[in-house]
Write a structure and sequence with these properties.
Blueprint (H helix, E strand, L loop, with lengths): L2 E5 L4 H12 L5 E4 L7 H11 L1 H4 L5 H4 L10 H10 L8 E4 L2 E5 L3 H8 L2
Parallel strand pairs: 1-2
Antiparallel strand pairs: 1-3, 3-4
Helix pairs in contact: 2-5
Length: 116
Amino acid sequence: MKVTIYGIPTCGTVKKARAWLDGRGVAYDWVDLRSTPPEPARVARWVVHLGSAALRNTSGGAYRALGPEKADWDDARWTQAFQADAMLIKRPVVEIDGAPALVGFREPAWIETFGG
């Protein structure tokens, strides 16, 4: 199983997720969204598999700066926004064997995915 984690190193949730994986001996590749933004096709796959609502980083300044019209955006518009600004993406995003698997860090979902 190849695990890839997308996030930013200063994000507290990403730190928790990486520590959780490290503590269980799960090997993973790390991708910093700031220095290596995901390519458009990858973002589009994330939206298809995880949903644009799950991918929205609603606590970030980039999200708040979008204005009220964001409430009416469909998945296609959110995909464009995520591609334009990776800070709009909730972190971490986890791919397993190249397929989107998890977004954010909720331990029950991670236990279900990786085991206790």
